[in-house]
């Protein structure tokens, strides 16, 4: 994906495009993890009551 972004951006903008892609991938995406976990918890309520075999 990053290679496609770099190939499609102009030569003068490769560094800027790469830094924005890194910021979104490493900085913004982890902020959505609690929302994703909450959605999974609501949809898969039976998983919370599963016990490990002895």
Outline:
The chain contains three helices and no strands. It has 54 residues and is mainly alpha-helical. The mean pLDDT is 80.
Judged by helices, strands and strand pairing, the structural class is mainly alpha
- Spell the H/E element sequence: HHH
Number of strands: 0
Q: What does the overall shape look like?
A: rod-shaped
The count of helical stretches stands at: 3
Mean pLDDT: 80
Would you mind describing this structure in some detail?
There is one protein chain. The chain is mainly alpha-helical. The protein has one domain. Helices cover 61% and strands 0% of the residues. The longest helix is centred in the middle third of the chain and has 15 residues. The relative contact order is 0.09. The mean pLDDT is 80.
Which helices and strands, and how do they pair?
Blueprint: H1 2-8, H2 14-28, H3 33-43
What brief labels describe this structure?
mainly alpha; 61% helix; rod-shaped; 54 residues
């Amino acid at each position: 994906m990053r290679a496609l972004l770099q190939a499609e951006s102009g030569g003068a903008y490769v560094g800027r495009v790469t830094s924005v892609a890194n910021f979104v991938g490493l900085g913004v995406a982890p902020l959505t993890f609690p929302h994703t976990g909450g959605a999974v918890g609501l949809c898969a309520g039976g998983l919370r009551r599963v016990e490990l075999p002895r």
